[in-house]
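Friendly challenge for the regulars: who can give me the structure tokens for this chain first? No prize, just bragging rights.
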Amino acid sequence: MISCLKQENFKFWHQHFPFYGMAALALFMLETAISGPIKPRIIAQGFGLGQWVILIMITISPTFLALEYKNNTIITLFYKNSNKKNIYCAKFLLTFSYGLLLNAGGFIFALGLKSLFVGDKYSWTIIYENTQDLITTLLLNIGGSIVYLLFIIALCFFLFTLIKVNVAVIGIGIALGFLGASFSQLLMDSFPHYQNLLKWNPLNMINIINQLPQINYAQHSALENSQLLLAVLIYTLIFLGLGYQFFQNHKV
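First reply, four minutes later:
Bragging rights claimed.
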């Protein structure tokens, strides 16, 4: 897989969205900053950093795979490396690495926007919502976003290998990303007697974004932080495994 990562490296960073994704993130965060009064909650959320990174990655993840087939570069990859598992895992790791880069860049943008728009009005050390200081809350928000990226990228890869329609995968991914947690909550509220089972549904994993920085958020997911983290990782492996099964049988 290491050799496959090297083969993919130049192509990924120089041909697939490295500048545009970061530019889009900066614009989205700037729009959040100028769209209303800046309160500690906006700062703690990194000016929407988590949700914007997830939106960008939902768009990029299936497109990364789709372009390989559209440009027939996947044939070259199969020729150079016959192990499809290495190719699939390399693509997943590179896509996730780009998500890490976006989060790192977004963190720097958040620091800059906070300094530019509010200066020292809200100190990074002030206690936020009676839990932890502002900077810790921001870092936990970013941590939740990073963990969730594992899940959503694996899901997008699986959906693309299953239905092979890029636009449809993006639409499904966005719908799940923004409405999935609410639907999961509705499902558990509608069938309270089955909550112990329903709380493990994949849509509930979206709550990892908000639960890490908010101690009381566990009442929505009905899972402890450790349970939620473990479930996210298990679902990531499940979707990766399912996606690979379709990927290896995908005709080129």
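The longest helix spans residues 84-117. Residues 33 and 117 are 8 Å apart (CA to CA). Your move, everyone else.
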